[in-house]
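hi! just following up on the protien thing from before. the input was this:
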Amino acid sequence: MALDAARTLAFVQKTWDGEILPTLTEYVRIPAKSPMFDPEWKAHGHLDRAVDMIEQWCRARAIEGLRVEVVRIEGRTPVIFMEVPGRGDDTVLLYGHCDKQPEMVGWAEGLGPWTPVRRGDRLYGRGAADDGYAAFAALTSIQTLQAQGVPHARCVVLIEACEESGSYDLPHYVNALATRIGTPSLVVCLDSGCSDYEHLWTTTSLRGIVNGVLTVEVLTEGVHSGAASGIVPSSFRILRSLLSRIEDERTGDVKVSDLHAEIPRERIEQARAVSGVLAKRLAQFPFVPGMRPMHDDPLNALLAGTWKPALSITGAAGLPSPTDGGNVLRPQTSAKLSMRLPPTVNAVNAAKRLKEVLEAEPPYGARVRFETESPGDGWDAPATAPWLAQALRRASETYFCQPAMAQGTGGSIPFMAMLGARYPDAQFMITGVLGPDSNAHGPNEYLHVPMGVRVTACVASVLADHAQRSR
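and the predicted 3d structure came back as:
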């Protein structure tokens, strides 16, 4: 039986309006910060509250054969494991997460990270789009198939609570659940982004990441700057000079050759095909008046943001606020470095190389340390099978009335590198709702509700085509 597009959209819309959005609204209120940002997560209980909320919603679905279980390994964040039997021997793995980024500052008046606010098509608040909606969308896509009697493969839904910390708990669960997961022929990840809200977007590559804290110490305690400046070198100046070893401060180009990779021709052509859409998106970043992007050409901008290394400073310590800063030469300065890596660069090797470059021959004999977090590898998708290319095109044309679009993404989903290595024969549908100015991880983060509805319908369509592909 073929999937009826009108019935699918009506069912998905009704479920979103009446059941998903009310629960997502309550989910936003929970400060379920990832363990990196809330080391006392277990004592605080917020992650468990989010898991419990999603678990209860899922258990109430009218899905034949659905089994829902919260799996816990001692000392690790929990995982929600769901299984729905299906036709044949195939398995589809659908993935999402329920942990969140921290609050951030700069929220507009009336908005806040734990304050759900609906304004038109937007639900503001932390985590609804990244990635609270995923469990609801995954089960709704399965439920709409069953409501129409449309066959689907066996489906496993995995919702983790550690993604924003690099998914360091997830491999332990994947190993523990290996026999129950099986070997998926299709992986659907609902934690990616889109360059507009007018197409179905899939992700073809993800950058890797190395996070670390660079610290420069010059004194055991602060001293009067009038007595010390000119004699004791500034820890800030030394740190600034160390950063110049790895980045050209004029252009933003990363100087360490080991952190670069050749861009595959196929990815360049894919970027060229969607660069026109990106041109509109460049203007939607919240630049201050007179500011311009690093690249005027959309193609160069897209490749720079998806296949080239780039450094961001995401935090600092040892620096008092301007109002509190006295005439003191400070004893140390620390900066948190976030280095995005091309999809095919080994993150562990990149972390070692950065440490070597930054700690070698410290200026003036200062004490320099670069301490990294767990590096995350990027991911480059395998060639898309003809059936999946056709299924994505059909889904986008049906529910967006536009062709499907494919792009590399500048962010990281550490889970994908692990799955790509574990299931080398699987096909991947990496999609999501994080579009222009949705501002994931930042202030005023929001979920574009119509995008969530249409992505849910598209997943149902692809699941139906997946089940039909071998007939």
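The radius of gyration is 23 Å.
The chain has a mean pLDDT of 95.
cheers
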